[in-house]
Amino acid sequence: MRRQLLLCFFYLIPILDFAQSQPAYIAGKVVDDGGMPLAFANLQIIDSFDGDVSNEAGRFVIATRTTGASKIRASLLGYEAREQTVQLAVGDTSWVDFVLHEALINLQDVVVTASAFATGDEGKGVTLRRMDVVTTPGAAADIFLAIKTFPGVAMVDEGSGLFVRGGDVSETVTLLDQATVVHPYKYESPTGGVFGTINPFLVSGTFFSSGGFSARYGNALSGVLAMESQNLPDGPAYTLNLGLAAASASLQWPLLQNKLGVRFSGNRSFTGAMFRLNGRRDEFVEAPSGNDGNLSLIYQYSPTGRLKFFNFAADDRIGVNVQEPSFVAVYRGEESNRLHNLQWSDLWRGWLLRSSLSLNRYDTKRHLGNLNLDQGDDTYKWRLDVERELSQRRRFAWGSEVECVHNDFRGTVPANRDVLDPNAAVFRLQENFSAQRWGIYAEMETRWGRRLTSGAGIRADHHNLARETTVDPRLSLRYDFSKQTNVRLAWGRYHQFPEAYLYNPASGNSRLAAQQAQHFIAGLEHQREQLMLRVETYYKPYQHLVLRDNERNYANRGEGEAHGLDLFVKYGAFLQTRCNGWLAYSYLHSERLLPRSTGTGYLYERAPSSFDITHNLTLVGKLRIIQFLSGGLTYRFATGRPITPIAGAMRDATFGFYIPIDGPVNSERLPAFQRLDASLSYYLPYGNGHAATFYFAVSNLLNRANVLDYDYALDYSARTPRRTNYQRFIYFGVTATFLP
């Protein structure tokens, strides 16, 4: 009897357990606002793991042991999520239907930023994919040269400097993983440099804005370029490249799958053979040469937490003959650039946290005539960014940063920057000082309905040398007529503190204040399948710009304005369509108060900005000729930049050199700039996932001798055009990728 009772007890336990755990059911249908069923919608009981996916008829059934009042959420990519509350009881079935409206705006995208272009391989906001950038003829696989094919960036010369809407290169800030890249160019010059420092294959994506950018990107008078380094490698791979002027190697290796990975690259440039082939070697005392390398470690310590340690080092040298009126000139330069950045990111209680600690160390030696300057600067930076979606309609972000710059200047600089004669007067520098800047910002993006989204932000920065705190509001608005078409408005105030070396007491002014610009922007964008059309107008007034001064070397007496129109039309994408390309056109008119040298001092006149390129046109076209053979052309046209003619000269009685006297400021223009670049590439797959790419490029295919400036006679009585260093120029090489 005891055994029979025990067996009955054991048989009864599952029955009792089933009775106590009998589920509640939620059933229903998901449709769009036209009544059509939506398949693959996600249905979820909030704060539980219970859910279902709608079938082709839009129907779903959720079984749950949750009881009482519960919220059910329905979501589908491209539609606005909806929630409903139901009362659940054991064994009962609750019927719920959802109507989802098409989402015209997604707060996950950069929805209200004006003048924005993005590159990368993921994301709805991408303008150009990474291979679009790499395969652009004339861009030399350089991020900065590729960005110069966007509207709003002027073609001032053949270098990589970003001259945005009438401003010079110092008015655009460059970021990498939140760190400031203080010296983003190789072979630096007053117009930027020959190439960008960061290799495009080290970068997963970029964000470039020529105006109206939000408070999180900091302060700059004209533009911002923000880059993100590569994440964990998917698998091991090796890449070798050998070209006419460089050899490089790289590898990526997952040390612990989905946990720890390493990326490494090294490059050695040797341009002598390239310049000999193209008939330009005699211009160099020492042909440009250099080394650079990158080592990155990525540690994914949790599903949401990641550490990135990015390290970059580059060394460059150059010796080039320069035309100077009064002496045989040779410019010699050496550069050393180091960037170290540790970035941490994680998700905590719905907040996305990102922080970085960086050091950018730069040393250079420059010698030309009476310019003999050794410069070193170390830039330390800490940054924190925090953001969260407060609701389906609001996203909030805030952040702060501290940046410390240590400058060291030793040597001589010309007292009159137009006179580099070895016997001319100089300022002698032996300066070592520091500058600190503290910044904080907050911004909110709000969706007011299916079509309207706004952004509002504010930023404050304090600079110890300027002894000034600036406060800058930013506003933006986007209205979506449809998923394909929207209009954007933006306004913001932007401050930029002068370069730290301008505060030195010998050749600068320790009382300089922040420079200011405002951005007023209105734009229209239309995008459908493979076609993108964007048109934008802007107005940018300036105040407190730093100019040369008769009494204090420099002073904040500059002001002016710039206005214009940008047009961008793009069709197709690399490997997605047989042909692809884009058109970028910019119209610019600017006017500033500028100094005019009289030989003994300065007068001030209103004139076009020194980088006022009235019309700037770029056409890029690429074609997949056969399966593995592709070709492309890039055509550039730019009206000549303004120049100040030399009206006369004064002879130095002691040493005999001449001091130039300026004519009306920027009253002449150089001849129009035109260049056609071409490229061919052949992709050859072989073995198990291996591939080789053979490439051949011709810069300035039509061999046009563009005039970049004028060289003057000893007494400045005559001048001759200084023509391009890149008349028809040939380059070729091969890149091979191996998968172990």
Written overview of the protein:
- The protein is mainly beta and 740 residues long.
- The strands form nine sheets. It has a 22-stranded antiparallel β-barrel. The protein has a six-stranded mixed beta sheet with strand order 9-8-16-17-12-13. Strands 3-2-5-6 form a four-stranded antiparallel beta sheet, with no helix packed on it.
- The protein contains four helices and 46 strands.
- Helices cover 5% and strands 60% of the residues.
- A hairpin with a 6-residue loop joins strand 39 and strand 40 (658-662).
Mean pLDDT: 85
From the alpha-carbon coordinates, what is the Rg to the nearest angstrom? 30 Å
CATH topology title of the largest domain: Maltoporin, Chain A
CATH architecture of the largest domain: Beta Barrel
Q: How many structurally independent domains?
A: 3
In CATH terms, the superfamily of the largest domain is: TonB-dependent receptor, beta-barrel domain
- Low-confidence parts: 1-21, 105-111
Bin the strand percentage: over 45%
Tell me the distance between the termini: 71 Å
Largest sheet: 22 strands, antiparallel, barrel
* Number of helices, where a helix is a run of at least 4 consecutive DSSP H or I residues: 4
- Helicity, as a percent range: under 10%
Work out the number of β strands.
46
Briefly note the structural class of the backbone: mainly beta
CATH class of the largest domain: Mainly Beta
Taken from the alpha-carbon principal axes, the silhouette is globular
